Amino acid sequence: MKYANVIIPAGVDSGDTIHVREAGNSGGRGAIPGSLYIKLRVASDPVFVRDGADVHVDKKISFTQAMLGGKIEVPTLDGKTEIKIPKGVQPGQVVVLRGKGLELPNQAGYFGDQHVRFKIHFPLKVNERQRALLEDFAAEEATKEQSFFATGNWLYEQLSTG
User: Fold this and answer.
1) I want to staple 61 with a disulfide (CB 3.0 to 4.6 A). Which of 26, 50, 65, 101 is the partner?
2) What pLDDT sits at residue 152?
3) Which spans of this chain does the record mark as coiled coil (predicted)?
4) What is the pLDDT of residues 104-150, one digit of tens each?
5) What Cα–Cα distance (Å) separates residue 90 from each residue in 21, 56, 60?
6) Is the pTM of this model over 0.90?
7) What residue numbers bound the domain in which 34 lies?
């Protein structure tokens, strides 16, 4: 058995191989030892999903934040950062943070991007005041949009039938 100090470069991925010269088996009778090849397997992360140099993260927001926009903190590889939620953001819509991904080995200075995907949380229950506000909103929406939204608006139809 032999111990070897190995530096794992930033940005390596599963399946990558690290070559360490003269750290393998003895060459015998004074010959130089062979090479050690280490095949890597990178553990999955509970927050980030990796795609090459890019990382992906899901962020849950309320439906009012989705409609009105705002700001929210999201995790990055360097800590937390505040991003803007666009007004009217749709479920699954993505905001890209350029250069916030991983640095690729053998490409010093090149960083991938971080993709933040919005997951919109809709409440299962609303109180009476919230219901009244939603009914007012649905009625105004139906008045403004007349044909398309009034006839195809599931929320409006649900609130109208009680």
Assistant:
1) 65
2) 58
3) none
4) 777 778 899 999 999 999 999 999 999 999 999 888 887 776 655 44
5) 52, 17, 12
6) no
7) 1-43
